[in-house]
Design brief:
The protein is of the alpha+beta class and about 575 residues long. It has helices at about 195-215, 225-235, 260-270, 275-285, 315-325, 330-350, 365-370, 385-405, 410-430, 465-475, 505-520, 520-540, 560-575, and strands at about 25-30, 35-45, 50-55, 70, 75-80, 85-90, 95-100, 105-110, 110-115, 120-125, 130-135, 140-145, 150-155, 160, 165-170, 175-185, 235, 245-250, 260, 300, 305, 380-385, 435-440, 445, 545, 550-555.
């Protein structure tokens, strides 16, 4: 690995510039639907907060310089007619910046300081550095000038409203250079670990090593693999706050959490090359499993939400994870996973089954992960076939784990329960040509044009052939030129940017593709894989995509999308695809 591998170029308007382990990024995206003209240091501790504004200046006028921004995994650059400024991560909590011909203004993003909000600015005499303290993140941002001159300093120790920051410019004998650190309360004065060029080289090599590990199979036939790997690498944070393990956030834009089904796809993509990181992704939500066995809706730095849950795809995931991990799991790891999966399954069979009911129910569309899918239009507290199917797979996985752990009685019990649940699903929700949902309150049934109604295809080889064939035919009707629409495009309820009412989503694609393939529908599975891969190669790794145009929607740097691309691209390559 050498520094002549800068990695893929990308737009910071779509993908934040960051590094593996860091809790902050450099981006113009300050919040959902909020884009700034300038790049900012945006932290994800205590939420998403733009802390510092980074502005290259015209040395003659002192005004904002006209620049273009270029980014690769190891280097971010502002390039103007008069010169350039560069930024690279020295470590997860420190960036180095260097420039010539373009002075740089580093200023607080928030102009107003109150007793409970905003950013205070002062000079730290002990460290000979300038420090911004942020109420929002609860952290400090220390700027140490390594070379050059501070040509303007404003707002030091100021209260109330005003501009706070410093401008650094080059001396006659060389470029300016600064270090910016995110820290807690104090640390020894900053001392550079290497020259700026070596910092860039180390960052490039770090990413090159990661992509070689995660996607060694990549080729010109998988042109988005390196960028997908960057999305994962750069969205990974070190343990902090309530995040108990190294974690791949869904994004370092505003979707900066780990939701309790999104993490499954990241775990699977990482498993062959980074087995320890994959293991951590799988188990992170389980670290917050409550006394009933329920997983939280989401986990992030300073917040664990329990107001909803997410679908129990974890048995399906663990079956694949065991096969994909490059290191064998020990008995203690298998026993820990069995216990956690058993408690998660028991939650659905107790807290989410009405008295006398054979099948569990969702209490809201959010519990399914398909928040506003049309399946939930008539009622929200409903029994659905996708939930039954996921639990059936989870019971089969528990049976396999019990067998491996030397508990044949438990294995028989889970196998029997899976059979009983599948019989109940087919008896109560299958009409002969479709699955229906049933309201818990009154027992009314209905069907929709949502792809969610077809998700029992995940049962694959466990489904009767006639049911599998009908589902495959209905799934094909959802296939546009770009992939699987979550609502039939011919439906009156279809909305191009309707979240789960039309757009293409990565997790639905992977689950359906896998179920079809295991059920013997290889042609359709191949077509779904090919169209989704082409979609990502053309339109990136958005949270979801317009099903009729392919345009990326919502958060444009979503890790489960990148992981899904890697999973499908790897599988296609290993099948001998070109």
């Amino acid at each position: 690995m050498t520094a002549d591998r800068p990695g893929p170029a990308f737009s910071v308007h779509d993908i934040p510039f960051s590094t593996h382990g860091s809790w902050f990024d450099i981006s113009p995206v300050l919040a959902e639907k909020t884009h700034a003209e300038d790049l900012h240091l945006v932290s994800h501790q205590n939420g998403m907060h733009a802390v510092l504004r980074l502005v290259p200046l015209d040395s003659a006028t002192g005004e904002r310089a006209e620049t273009r921004v270029e980014a690769t995994p190891g280097l971010l650059s502002w390039i103007g007619e008069a010169g350039r400024a560069d930024l690279a991560y020295e470590s997860p909590d420190t960036v180095r910046l260097s420039g010539a011909g373009l002075p740089l203004r580093v200023a607080a993003a928030a102009r107003t300081l109150t007793p409970f909000s905003g950013t205070y600015f002062f000079h730290d005499a002990a460290a000979d550095a300038h420090v911004f303290t942020s109420y929002e993140t609860g952290r400090r941002y220390r700027v140490t000038v390594l070379s050059g001159t501070v040509t303007d300093l404003s707002g030091s120790q100021a209260l109330g409203s005003g501009d706070r920051g410093l401008t650094v410019a080059a001396d006659a004998d060389g470029p300016w250079e600064i270090a910016v650190e995110e820290l807690d309360t104090a640390r020894p004065p900053y001392s550079p670990s290497a020259a700026f060029g070596k910092i860039v080289e180390a960052a490039q090599n770090s990413f090159a090593g990661f992509v070689d590990t995660v996607a060694p199979w990549r080729s010109s036939a998988t042109p988005a693999a390196e960028l997908a790997a960057y999305v994962l690498w750069s969205a990974t944070v070190r343990p902090a706050g309530l995040v108990t393990r190294p974690a791949v956030l869904m994004s370092k834009h505003w979707m900066d959490k780990v939701w309790s089904w999104d993490h499954c796809f990241n775990a699977l993509a990482l498993a062959p090359g980074c087995p320890e990181l994959a293991w951590d992704q799988y188990h992170l939500p389980f670290d917050h499993q409550d006394e009933t066995g329920a997983l939280p809706d989401s986990v992030t730095h300073s917040e664990v939400l329990h107001n909803f849950v997410k679908p129990p795809i974890h048995g399906w995931t663990f079956g694949h994870l065991r096969r994909r991990l490059s290191t064998a799991l020990g008995q203690a790891q298998l026993a820990e996973t069995y216990d956690r999966l058993e408690r998660w399954t028991d939650f659905w069979l107790t807290a989410r089954r009405a008295p006398g009911a054979a099948l569990p129910h969702y209490q809201h569309g959010n519990d399914s992960g398909w928040d506003n899918a049309t399946t939930f239009d008539p009622e929200r507290v409903v029994v659905t076939a996708d939930l039954a199917a996921f639990l059936i797979l989870q019971m089969h996985e528990l049976a396999d784990l019990a067998t491996g752990l030397g508990s044949p009685e438990k294995a028989l019990r889970w196998t029997r329960m899976a059979s009983e649940a599948q019989a109940a699903m087919l008896d109560q929700l299958w009409t002969g040509d479709r699955f229906v949902a049933r309201g818990v309150a009154g027992g009314d049934t209905w069907h929709s044009s949502s792809l969610l109604d077809l998700m029992p295809i995940v049962l694959g080889e466990h489904l009767p052939d006639d049911v599998s064939s009908v589902l495959a035919g209905r799934i094909e009707a959802h296939l546009t030129s770009y992939g699987l629409a979550t609502e039939l495009p011919t439906s009156p309820h279809y909305v191009s940017d309707g979240y789960w009412r039309g757009p293409i989503w990565a997790p639905a694609t992977v689950l359906v593709e896998d179920g079809l393939r295991r059920g013997g529908h290889h042609r359709l599975a191949d077509e779904i894989s090919a169209r989704f891969r082409a979609l990502c190669e053309t339109h990136g790794f958005a949270e979801n995509f317009d099903a009729l145009t392919g345009t990326g929607l919502r958060d444009r740097a979503y890790t489960w999308t990148a992981s899904s691309y890697l999973l499908l691209a790897e599988a296609h390559t290993r099948r001998g695809g070109h």
